[in-house]
Amino acid sequence: MSHSSPVFPAKLLVTGGAGFIGSNFVLRAVSAGHTVVNLDALTYAGNLDNLAALASNPQHIFVQGDIGDAGLIARLLDEHQPNAIIHFAAESHVDRSILGPEVFLRTNILGTFTLLQAALTYWRSLAATSAQHFRFLHISTDEVYGSLAPSAPAFREDSPYAPNSPYSASKASSDHLVRAWFHTFGLPVLTTNCSNNYGPFQFPEKLIPLMIHNALSGKPLPVYGDGLNVRDWLYVEDHCEALLTVLERGRVGETYNIGGLNEQTNREVVARLCAVLDRIHPAGAPHDRLICFVTDRPGHDRRYAIDCSKIHSELGWRPRESFTSGLEKTVSWYFEHDDWVKRIASGEYRNLLAQNYSTS
Ligand code: NAD
Ligand code: DAU
To answer: What is the domain extent for residue 170?
Structure first.
């Protein structure tokens, strides 16, 4: 089958759209004119506070449900007839995958399988023109490529898979399933592998929001091991822009790496955060006095780096935000939204569904 450009504006079925990246994407997609059916199980990581701005917007339809529920997915596809599926839903935190891997396998592997099967049935039922426009966009991670030596070249789309944590192994499995559903069944898929995101609405278990929250509360800033592990950091809005670009113009069946061209050791990230906090929220003494070194993460990958020349040369995308401006924005956002973090800390955020949303 030949593939035509997707319909714009479109109706999108987004999974995991109440999480960190998903909610940023939903807000952006709706403001760009798309209509979003947002399927999210509202695990601990799902937070409808993130979508408060859309509470009475008819372009956002929220449904609480699990990507592993085949009947629900089939019903949603049939009822809403989306032009694309954007698949964010996952268990996403490496430390949790070490403590309890089972739910990672269930959601990230079996959940993706269930979604692919439902998408295939739906896609096959579409009229020829709609089927040519349809896309399944799978959101994945750079962690599937494993760990790099200090001077090794950055990950490319053809780098071998070498996942090291239960999280990255489950994401790698999901990438392979998506690839297989394209090659075997012809489902029009796109896959993206992105580096570490940061920005508004990130759950305060991940490095940057955890450090901001602890620093603002005068608590220790726990750096794992020697703090010399390297990550590439991308502002979340740049990631969302890249995803819309891939959805619109990406070649079906292809993978695109997305990165921030911004490698930093964890020590550097925390030191820079402390410097921004000293300026925005002086605490009488420098925040870096709170830094402490704690036991390392088991199997801690040493370095990730992304070569994103393919998405740049093919689709014209590159990150806009610098790490300096992105960190400033992020620290300011958390400083101005301390009620958002407080509602997470108290568990209050989990009551919003009953208060503000109706589910179908
Ligand atoms: P997150 O943990 O903040 O959000 C995940 C969302 O998925 C939550 O809203 C949660 O309720 C929902 N969810 C979990 N299990 C579900 C299920 N069974 N059915 C329906 N919904 C379910 O994650 P994130 O950081 O926003 O990451 C989103 C996606 O992007 C993930 O697939 C992740 O692997 C990928 N990714 C994340 C990063 C990053 O730095 N955060 C980088 C690259 C790729
Ligand atoms: O690379 C993309 C991945 O980035 C995504 O696929 C994951 O979903 C996302 O969680 C993230 O994984 P990391 O493990 O890199 O992110 P995290 O924020 O947990 O940790 C970043 C680095 O900081 C890592 O080297 C571990 C370290 N760290 C983390 C925490 C929470 C600390 O030193 N102290 C901490 O308290």
So the answer is: 11-201+233-261+300-322
